[in-house]
Amino acid sequence: MRTLIAALAAGVLVVGLTPAAVASDSPPSSGPDVISAILPSHPLRKSPQPLPLTRAIRPLDVSYEYDGRRYTLKEFLDRSAAWGFVVVDGESNEIVGDHYFASNPGTRFQSWSASKGFVGTAVGIAVDEGHIDSIDDPVTKYVPELGTSGYDGVSIRDVLRMSSGITWTEPLNIPPVHLGAAAGIPVTEFAKRRRRGWEPGSRFEYSGMNSFVLAWLIGKATGRPFYRYVEEKIWHPAGMASDAVISRDHHGNDLGYCCFMATVEDYSRLGLLYLNNGRAGGRQVVSESWVRESTRPSAPFNEPDFENDDTGYGLHWWLGGGSHGDYLASGFAGQKIYVSPRHGVVIAKSTLATVLTSDSEQLVAFRAIAAAVAASRG
């Protein structure tokens, strides 16, 4: 049984906010940002062939019940402090619902741990291309610098499914890493200092450091920096329409565990890539087998709790409970990339801080929205 945990990170700063604006059918240019400004970043240049998303707003009839009360879509957006929100009908690639508060379609939002969906995808592509022989290889095959750490001998699979065995408590350990990186300490040093605390592959223990190790590994295995690999293998072929950035430390190490800054429409394009079994723009970006493996329980201890409708965990994706078959990338304070294969719907949502709605309530709301989109089709 898993509880949906979003990575805790430090140092958020709001800069350059503008009033809300109406989305246009043309790809948004880079706009004002809601970003982490304490770290430098690497650029992700927009795709030369952006995936078109046509704005065709529908009057969605959405309400849902949670904890004995019924809420409307507007109440959900208000209570969950949505600053950027898009609903995409994956059957037509239409934006059928959107909402912007003190922002606009060009605003780039902080992903926090929703970035892990990109990290997992990059691992899958590296496997597809033969840069990684198998996710059952030890991480030290590709990153020998971790040979004296708790990661020694740990499989890539166990790192992907958050079962690495390192000693870690997310809310306590991530802020010092983030602030240390801002102060000039290489994040690689934090990774090398981690120690073994329990048997890898025996239980779930969420750790942002696992995602950094994967980003580091991708750079070593492919011979290209993580950000460059993401740009070439995900950002461009998936058709991202706007420039974005990835935070890094002062030594050029991309964080991986957080801190993409991108538009909600581009976050939704990652969801569409998965909804379409790894295809975008007529090409296979990541293998269908990787999409399938990433979005199903990665171990018995990562099975969703169907009785309690609790989430499970795949390979860097959270899995919806019950029989819904949905999944999502999730970040601190309410950043979400939600995919409903049953209804053919993707939802991307960004906030500054969600204090009135829990992760479980947001999942209930997303399911109601996805069902309403399916019902609205002619």
Automatic annotation (TrEMBL):
InterPro entries reported in the protein's UniProt record: Beta-lactam-related, Beta-lactam/transpept-like, Diverse_Enzym_Activities
Domain of life of the native organism: Bacteria
Residue ranges of every copy of the Beta-lactamase-related domain listed in the record: 73-351
Key word Signal present: yes
SUPFAM superfamilies: beta-lactamase/transpeptidase-like
N-terminal signal peptide: 1-23
Keywords: Signal
The protein, known as: CubicO group peptidase (Beta-lactamase class C family)
Organism name: Thermomonospora umbrina
